[in-house]
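Notes from hallway chat w/ T.B., transcribed later so I don't forget. T.B. wanted the structure written out for a chain they're using in a teaching module, and asked if we could keep both sequence and structure tokens in one place. Agreed to drop them here.
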Amino acid sequence: MHRRQSPFLFNGDLSPAAVPAEGTTQLGAVTALRGHPADTPTQQPVLGRLGGEPDWIQVDETPACPTCANHMAFTAELEEGHDFATKANFGGGGRGYLFSCQPCGEAAFLWQN
């Protein structure tokens, strides 16, 4: 049985991270990004999502786990961002996609543009 998850969107301005030397670091401590529920409209630019289903630019490229050969679970999607100085580069207008296989401890990252 496949359980459909609602995506959790991230929006806001990017800022350089100042990571503490020790201890657990939460996302909010190192970036201006803030979580935003996907089912609530926002005027802020959306920079990615956690969970749910990938919003493919091209065709579905869900990877197979290199250990067990099962389809990997979608984990996160990242967009390039809107500030040239801080944005990720996924080929000019692209998106990055992160997948994982929890039973095997494997992960995969790919991008499309």
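Follow-up for T.B.: The chain is about 5% helix and 30% strand. Might be a good example for the class.
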